[in-house]
Amino acid sequence: MKDLLMHIHPLRAHIEEVLPLTDQEFDFILSHFTPVSKRKHQYLVQEGELVNKEHWVIKGCLKAYFFDQNGKEYIVQFAMENWWITDYEAFNNQIRASFSVDCIEDCELLAIDYASREKLSSEMHKMERFWAKKTKLAFIASQKRILSLCRNTAKERYEMLLNQYPQLVQRVPKKMLASYLGVSRETLSRL
């Protein structure tokens, strides 16, 4: 059984964490995605550009971020294996991006464009349910992050990040972690 599980496509395994699929259903789903390879420091999304794709991470690590008028970077999201990333407001409303997404490491991704995602959702209600569940989970995580930024000390936020995503903390430079946590690099070093 373990050997069988090792040969399942990683996207299928990801979707099946939420709902079961037949081979034919997964083949249909996969036909809507395009493989994408990006090197470290390459963009997936650039602020100000139209956003037509959502990406699922097979391998690698990315960040979504913007700069304020003083040039200070604010990281709003990281994405590692099995995570989704794009500028969701821009993607869903088919407008220009408010922030950029680029690769912290070399990345292997699967991309789905807006029209394909809409078509897949309308033709296969299982995928509509899958994305609804993933959207709820992302919204909850976003709320928790906002509450943490408002309620918790820098040390508490860092400890929560260490406990929840130990692999991320090992892969991301301290400067980026500091930006994500809303603290200076020096404060993070003291923690």
List keywords for this structure.
191 residues; alpha+beta; Jelly Rolls; 4-stranded antiparallel sheet; 8 strands; 21% strand; disordered N terminus; cNMP-bd_dom; Cyclic nucleotide-binding domain protein
Task: Give an overview in words.
The chain is an alpha+beta fold and 191 residues long. The chain has one domain (2-151): Jelly Rolls (Sandwich), CATH 2.60.120. 49% of the residues lie in helices and 21% in strands. The strands form two sheets. Strands 1-8-3-6 form a four-stranded antiparallel beta sheet. A four-stranded antiparallel beta sheet has the order 2-7-4-5. β4 and β5 (73-79) form a beta hairpin. The chain is globular, with a radius of gyration of 18 Å. Mean pLDDT is 92; it is low at 1-5.
Question: Can you summarize this structure?
Answer:
The chain contains 10 helices and 8 strands. With 191 residues, it is an alpha+beta fold. The strands form 2 sheets. A 4-stranded antiparallel beta sheet has the order 1-8-3-6. The protein has a 4-stranded antiparallel beta sheet with strand order 2-7-4-5.
Topology:
Layout: H1 2-6, H2 10-15, H3 23-30, E1 34-38, E2 43-45, E3 53-59, E4 62-67, E5 73-79, E6 84-85, H4 88-93, E7 100-103, E8 107-113, H5 114-123, H6 125-151, H7 154-164, H8 166-171, H9 174-181, H10 185-190
Antiparallel strand pairs: 1-8, 2-7, 3-6, 3-8, 4-5, 4-7
- Name the helicity range: 40-55%
The CATH homologous superfamily is called: Jelly Rolls
Order of helices and strands: HHHEEEEEEHEEHHHHHH
Termini Cα gap: 44 Å
Number of domains: 1
Number-wise, the strands total: 8
Strand order of the largest sheet: 1-8-3-6
Q: What overall geometry do the principal axes of the alpha carbons give?
A: globular
Beta percentage is 15-25%
Mean pLDDT: 92
Whole-angstrom Rg:
18 Å
What fold name goes in the CATH topology slot? Jelly Rolls
Structural class call reads alpha+beta
Q: Count up the helices.
A: 10
- The CATH architecture would be Sandwich
* Low-pLDDT segments: 1-5
Q: Could you name the CATH class?
A: Mainly Beta
Major sheet: 4 strands, antiparallel
